[in-house]
Amino acid sequence: MKGLLVMIVVLGLLAGDGVVHGSANIGEEKMNALIGKHPVLVFSKSYCGFSKMAKHLITGLYPQAKVVELDREEHGTEMQNVLKSKYEHYTVPAVFLGDTLVGGNSDVQKLNANGELDQMINRFRNADR
Length: 129
Hints:
Largest sheet: 4 strands, mixed
Radius of gyration: 18 Å
Shape: globular
Number of helices: 6
Number of domains: 1
Strand order of the largest sheet: 2-1-3-4
CATH architecture: 3-Layer(aba) Sandwich
Order of helices and strands: HHEHEHEEHH
Structural class: alpha+beta
């Protein structure tokens, strides 16, 4: 009987009951909604040192930036999977300006050192007025 139950479960997983895809869709829907609503957005994990550096930099330049802590978010794992599959970004932080993924901490630090990050964020400061 136990073997039959295991076989039924395995067949159910192979058949694709939509649960995994439904979760992925929830993650993508939440991400799209956040990206559409917040001009400056950081996907982060609360314990990550690189995320802390990027958040400090971004919120210093744009205090209204939205920070999403994926490790504290209900569908954070699904959202991080979307970062991997849709944007080919495998780590946190993931910084978005508008609907464009700018990159992670090293990317925003480099843009800041070149004076480009402030110019990029200025577009959104001016739009807020």
